[in-house]
Amino acid sequence: MRAMLLDAPGRPLRPADIPIPSPGPGQVLVKVRACAVCRTDLHVVDGELEQPKLPLVPGHEIVGEVVAAGAGVDTFRAGERIGIPWLGHTCGVCPYCRSGHENLCDAPGFTGYTIDGGYAEYTVADAAYCFPLPERYDDIAAAPLLCAGLIGYRSLRMASDARRLGIYGFGAAAHIIAQVARHQGREIFAFTRPGDAAAQAFAAGLGAVWAGDSTAAPPVPLDAAILFAPVGGLVPAALAAVRKGGVVVCGGIHMSDIPSFPYRLLWEERVVRSVANLTRQDAIEFLALAGEVPIRIEVTPYPLAAANEALADLREGRLQGAAVLVP
């Protein structure tokens, strides 16, 4: 099969012909129909997330068709469309797994990081960590739901019932979850790179009541803010934007260093918290919600061989919405 391989962090992906994997016990073999390109893929490729499996097939927002199942799999049948997300395996026995916090598992496996992912024509996955997808989305539109959507949903939950919600970094995750938040009756305030008029217009077109530069103050105090941009300097800015008791949620897996800031920004019971990975329950809840809410998913498709181009476009901020590789 054709695949794009990472041989070492900091290097471009290499096209290669490698054997089609065989499903082991509990696994399914999946023919990849689409795989979205996530900022986490950039962090892996650029070496900001250390110790990936090497060589590695990246990609963890996978939509595919089940081709074969290993021993013990009775949840999916050949021909069924499924989604494969970032969380690829958990130990099931550590204190976190046993207390309903499998996203914090002590011995996890992550698709496209420690497990080969979807930048290929086929992949294998643990069937217990795969999910049926809402029929209303085609393969390309469904792919970003599997991380941009899932992490966005978990981040939104951490923002609790915030009515005025700021979103910093209006990319793949933000454009999906902003629509979910609007459906819930929240007001969205979108913060983009300074001067990015196109992104601000994009946010306004998706229902944001205000869109401006990340260096600007919102017109009213926010109840909560979610940071999808991996820029530590935005944490103090978001703290200054939220009201007393407000929450700042850091939704990324990697962020540049947070600069020092005066305690008065944190005082009055403001909270800064991170979001780590996801749980299978997150996926069940969000995919059911996505089946009910008509989310407009903005995508730019690329052929599999153009994976490096897609990553570069994401790195340089040349995309609106999500990039999706199509084998």
Can you give keywords for this protein?
single chain; 327 residues; alpha/beta; Quinone Oxidoreductase, Chain A, domain 1; Rossmann fold; 2 domains; seven-stranded mixed β-sheet; 9 helices; 27% strand; globular
What does this structure look like?
The protein is α/β, with parallel strands linked by helices and 327 residues long. The chain has 2 domains: 2-146 and 277-326, Medium-chain alcohol dehydrogenases, catalytic domain (Quinone Oxidoreductase, Chain A, domain 1); 150-274, NAD(P)-binding Rossmann-like Domain (Rossmann fold, 3-Layer(aba) Sandwich). Helices cover 24% and strands 27% of the residues. It contains 9 helices and 17 strands. It has helices at residues 39-45, 95-98, 139-142, 148-158, 172-183, 197-205, 234-241, 280-292, 307-315, and strands spanning 2-5, 14-17, 27-37, 62-69, 81-84, 87-89, 109-110, 122-126, 131-132, 164-168, 187-192, 210-213, 222-227, 242-250, 271-274, 299-303, 322-326. The strands form 4 sheets. Strands 3, 4, 5, 8, 9, 16 and 17 form a 7-stranded mixed beta sheet that branches. Strands 12-11-10-13-14-15 form a 6-stranded parallel beta sheet, with helices on both faces. The protein has a two-stranded antiparallel sheet with strand order 1-2. The protein starts with a strand and ends with a strand. The model has no long low-confidence stretch (mean pLDDT 97).
